[in-house]
Automatic annotation (TrEMBL):
Protein name in UniProt: histidine kinase
CDD domains for the chain: HATPase_UhpB-NarQ-NarX-like
SUPFAM superfamilies in the cross-refs: ATPase domain of HSP90 chaperone/DNA topoisomerase II/histidine kinase
Domain of life: Bacteria
Residue intervals passing through the bilayer: 27-49, 317-339
Catalytic class of the enzyme: transferase
Organism listed in the record: Saccharopolyspora elongata
Molecular-function GO terms, alphabetical: ATP binding; phosphorelay sensor kinase activity; protein dimerization activity
UniProt EC number: 2.7.13.3
Coiled-coil stretches noted in the UniProt entry, renumbered to this chain: 54-88
Record's catalysed reaction(s): ATP + protein L-histidine = ADP + protein N-phospho-L-histidine
C-alpha cells in the first residue's frame, strides 16, 4: 500500500507538473494517505503493545497476592497449632506421667497385698501409658507441617490384629463387645487410611465406655476392593443415665475422615443406641497442605516482552512516517532536476 502511494505520487507529479495548483493538491492528498496508512497503525500498535504486558503482569501480581494471602492464613493456623501443642504438652504430659507412675506403684502393691485388684491396677497403668502415647501422637500431628502421617502411628494400626486388641481391651474393662470382620486385612492399605479405621473404632468404643457401659456393642469392619467401611454400634444403655458429651471427639474424627476424602456419620439408632460409621478409600489421594505448595514465580516483564509485535509494528510505522516524507522529497527533487 505504501509503495502504491509513492508510485502514484511520482506519476501524478509528472502528469500534473504543468497544471496550475495540481502539484499542491497531489502533495496534500499524498500526505493524507501517508497519515492514514502509517499514523493509525502506529498509534494502535503502540497502545496494544503497552497494554498486553501490563495485563499479563497484573494477572501475575493478582495470583501472587492471592497465594500470599492463603499462605499467611496457613502460617497463622500452623502457629496456633504449635501453641496448642505446647500447652497440651505442659498441662497434660506431666499429669499423665504422674498417673502412669502411681499406677505402676499401685500394681506392684496390689500384686503383694491384694492380688484380686492386680488386673485393674495393670489396666490403669497400661491405659495411662496408652494415653501418654496418644498425646504424643496428637502433638506430632499438631506440629506436623508436611501432611504426613504421625511417626507414632504403629506399624499395624488399623489392621485386624490392632482392632482385635482394641476390642479385647474393652472386654477387659467390662464391655460386652464383639468384632465382625469381613474381607481381607487392611495391612496393605495406606497408613492414613488404616489410622482412620483405628480412630473410628477407638472413638466408638470410648463413647460406649462413657455413655453406655452396660449396653452390648459391635464393631464391624468390611474391606472390599479399594474401600474400607467401619462401624461401631451399641444398644440402648441400661441403669443410670449418663450425661451426653461435648461431641468434640466426633467433630474431630469427622474432620479427619473428610481430610481423607471419606464419608462419616454418627447418631442415635432407632433402638435407642448409638452408632458411628465411616467409609474411606484404602489409598486416599490427599493433596499437600497449602503451606507446602510453592509460591508461583512472579517476575518483572523483560525488555523483550515489553517490545511485543504490536509495539514493534507501531514503532516501525512511526519510523516510516518520519522517513517516507524525507525520501519522497528527495525523489521529487531529483525528478524536478531531471525535467528541467
Amino acid at each position: 500500500m505504501l509503495a502504491t502511494a509513492v508510485v502514484d505520487l511520482l506519476l501524478s507529479v509528472v502528469r500534473e507538473w504543468n497544471a496550475p495548483g495540481g502539484l499542491g493538491e497531489t502533495l496534500a492528498g499524498f500526505a493524507l494517505t501517508v497519515a492514514f496508512l502509517l499514523l493509525l497503525p502506529a498509534l494502535s500498535g503502540g497502545v496494544l503493545g503497552r497494554r498486553q504486558p501490563l495485563v499479563r503482569l497484573l494477572r501475575e501480581r493478582n495470583q501472587y497476592l492471592e497465594r500470599a494471602q492463603e499462605l499467611t492464613a496457613e502460617k497463622a493456623r500452623l502457629k496456633e497449632r504449635a501453641h496448642i501443642a505446647t500447652e497440651m504438652h505442659d498441662m497434660l504430659g506431666h499429669r499423665l506421667s504422674l498417673i502412669s507412675m502411681h499406677a505402676g506403684a499401685l500394681e506392684i502393691t496390689a500384686a503383694k497385698d491384694a492380688p484380686r485388684f492386680s488386673g485393674q491396677a495393670e489396666l490403669l497403668r497400661t491405659t495411662a501409658a496408652t494415653a501418654m502415647a496418644e498425646l504424643r501422637e496428637i502433638l506430632g500431628v499438631l506440629n506436623d507441617t508436611q501432611g504426613s502421617p504421625p511417626e507414632t502411628v504403629g506399624e499395624h494400626s488399623g489392621t485386624r490384629a490392632d482392632i482385635t486388641d482394641l476390642v479385647a481391651e474393652s472386654r477387659r474393662a467390662g464391655i460386652a463387645v464383639e468384632l465382625v470382620w469381613s474381607g481381607a486385612d487392611v495391612d496393605d492399605a495406606d497408613v492414613r487410611a488404616r489410622h482412620g479405621v483405628h480412630r473410628v473404632v477407638r472413638e466408638g468404643l470410648t463413647n460406649v465406655h462413657e455413655h453406655a457401659p452396660t449396653a452390648p456393642a459391635r464393631v464391624e469392619v468390611a474391606h472390599e476392593a479399594d474401600r474400607i467401611r467401619v462401624r461401631v454400634i451399641n444398644g440402648a444403655a441400661h441403669g443410670a443415665h449418663r450425661p451426653s458429651g461435648t461431641r468434640r471427639g466426633l467433630v474431630g474424627l469427622e474432620e479427619r475422615i473428610e481430610l481423607l476424602r471419606g464419608a462419616f456419620s454418627a447418631g442415635p439408632t432407632p433402638e435407642g443406641g448409638f452408632q458411628i460409621s465411616a467409609e474411606l478409600a484404602a489409598h486416599p489421594a490427599v493433596p499437600a497442605p497449602a503451606a507446602n505448595r510453592p509460591l508461583p514465580e512472579v517476575r518483572e516483564p523483560l525488555d523483550a516482552e515489553v517490545l511485543t509485535l504490536p509495539r514493534a509494528v507501531g514503532a516501525g510505522c512511526l519510523g516510516l512516517l518520519a522517513v517516507v516524507p524525507v525520501a519522497t522529497g528527495l525523489i521529487m527533487l531529483i525528478i524536478l532536476l531531471a525535467i528541467e
